[in-house]
Amino acid sequence: MTYVVTEPCIKCKYTDCVDVCPVDCFREGPNFLVIDPDECIDCTLCVAECPVEAIFAEDDVPENQRAFTALNAELAKVWKPIIERKAAPPDADEWAKKTDKRDLLAR
Fold first, then answer.
1. Is the pLDDT of residue 17 over 90?
2. CB 68: neighbour CB atoms within 10 A?
3. Which DSSP letter does residue 53 get?
4. What is the pLDDT of residue 1?
5. Which residues form the domain of 51?
């Protein structure tokens, strides 16, 4: 089992999770982070660090977010690793309160 980043991360892209990952399994896109399922060791440390509660164990991903499991695996193959925390986008707090952001995912 791996962990999966879901829709709440879109356009927020807080990177608190990156700081605690012992195996550097996060990958960074323009406005979203993903977890490389081949690198994730299921340590659970990132879950508590995500301020928008976007990270779930693969078996616990909400039904309406299941597509993000495959999306994490797909994008992890093409996006570069992120190994250090970065400042969140200036409007991240505003986006954190919004839902239905899937169409805003930039690849």
1. yes
2. 26
3. -
4. 78
5. 3-82
